[in-house]
Amino acid sequence: MTKPLGRKPNFLIGPTNSANQGTAWSQALTRFGANSESLRISANPAGEWFTTDISIPREKWLTFDYRQELANSVASSKEIVLIESLRPIFRLRNVRDSNHQVLEDFTLLTRIGKRAGVIFHGSDIRDVDAHALRNPYSPFKSERPEIEDLRKRSNQNRAILPELRNRGLPIFVSTKDLLLEVPDAHWLPVTIDFPRFNAVAKSSPIYTGADTKLRVLFLPSRSWLKSAELIEPVLLKLVSEGIISYESFTSGGENIKHDQIPDLIAKNDVVIDQYLGVIGVFPIEALAAGRIVLSYVPEADAEIPIISITPQTLESELRRIAKDRPLPHGGVEYAERWHDGRESVKAIAKVFNFRV
Length: 356
Prior knowledge:
Blueprint: E1 10-14, H1 21-32, E2 35-42, E3 54-57, H2 58-61, H3 64-77, E4 80-84, H4 102-111, E5 115-120, H5 128-134, H6 145-159, H7 161-166, E6 171-173, E7 186-187, H8 194-203, E8 214-218, H9 228-240, E9 244-246, H10 261-266, E10 270-272, H11 281-288, E11 292-295, E12 307-308, H12 314-324, H13 331-339, H14 342-352
Parallel strand pairs: 1-2, 1-4, 2-3, 4-5, 5-6, 6-7, 8-9, 8-10, 10-11, 11-12
Helix pairs in contact: 11-13
């Protein structure tokens, strides 16, 4: 076991800030037990959904002098670096060879006396072929070109897992389903802005809008990945029957900024997520906002107060909710218990041996 740290360590989390988690975990670490900054290397900083502590335009990052400056800054100010999705932050050798580029970052961090870890968010490590076999509703059963890109990337990352273990690097995953991919990983719960979303539950409780129909929100970030072709026809059918109200975002949901999400949730009673079998940030935010949430819930997440749906049961569940108007139960408490940042900090503190 590593020697306990006698003071709050300084973290850096990057370089993807996927689903704003780098920033959310950094803020939680700063609130509950350490100090941290998030970092994102972006091709389009002006078009970002989220705010990152250190935002680096990719063109700037591609210059060697800047990457060297960044490495010097981390060397003088950080003790622990958590690298997301095995994307390099420094890449000081500035070459492309048969080795995974991120390995040189880990070598550098070791040489300058820093500790490091790895965070996976989902598609960066998920075996799409295994997912297609175990999940009957998997979006990876198709032959979309995007799937081949995901397959290539995740295969490359899984190939160096033995090397990461040999180096003693702790591995974190943000959702429990990923423990099927990396059984020895540590679960690092996603973190949400609980007070902000819980304020929606208090100011805009469900079934209180002017619209007497059941108000349904389906907001896919990527329509094919969130099974929009299976979900939206059901919604449009129920709209035509006057049972629900629904505004389609399937052709532009990816353009909705995260700051808009609380207001969108506030205007709806029910939130539908996906058939992927992943409980990520959005459904947890909806639970915190006091909404009824429908999603395909894997066995690993069976305790979450989300109504599990399949393509065969979505319509009947919506009809039942529209008729009976059940109140949400346990979602707010679950979101606060596991996803307000405290459990995430505990997970990191346990691995790096500091007190919270």
